[in-house]
Amino acid sequence: MRRGITLIEVMLVTAIFAGMLAVFVLIQRQGEAVGSKSQASDRAFRAVTLGLADIQQELTNARLVATVPGALFSYSLPRLDAGRVVLDPQGLVVWTAGDYSLVVNQGRLLRTHPTLGNRVYCDLGQGGANATVQANQLVKVTLHAEFDPLDPKKHSDYTVTSTFLVAP
Q: What is the pTM of this model?
């Protein structure tokens, strides 16, 4: 009749538990790395989609004007009164005083206005933006968000292009 357990049995069980623990830690670390990369990619995606949504809303009733130096493009908005566009006696749209400009400054996409100041649309990180005007009515905007370019585990970038139709 045998009593107790031998040292070899204890060592074998300890080795099995240590192996299982090592596999568990490895899986956990890989999951954290995937989650971190996913969060970084989501940040870049959100930056460009929110930026384009703001631009789309802003340009809904806009008309293009002469571009201010350093701006992607410049535009004017109709004057509103109680949410309705103000018309002059001839039935033409009355435009607001001062033109708006879309610029990129220190990694941020901004709307600038001489009296209203700046409004930040989104943070592009080390990315940037480009806009081209076609036929004086189409504005093609490309936004590129890039974050943590030196860290391969957190690096993320996302680029999106959209075209907007503005008033003549």
A: 0.70
pLDDT value at 1 more than 70: no
Query: For the chain, what's the residue count?
Result: 168
CB-based contact 102:109 (threshold 8 Å): yes
Under 8 Å between Cβ of 56 and 162: yes
Nearest alpha-carbon partner for 46 in 142, 145, 131, 119: 145
pLDDT in tens, 23-56: 998 988 887 777 766 777 788 888 888 888 988 8
Nearest to 122 by CA among 150, 100, 144, 141: 144
Q: How far apart are CA 34 and CA 24, in angstroms?
A: 16
Tokens, residue 156? 């993320």
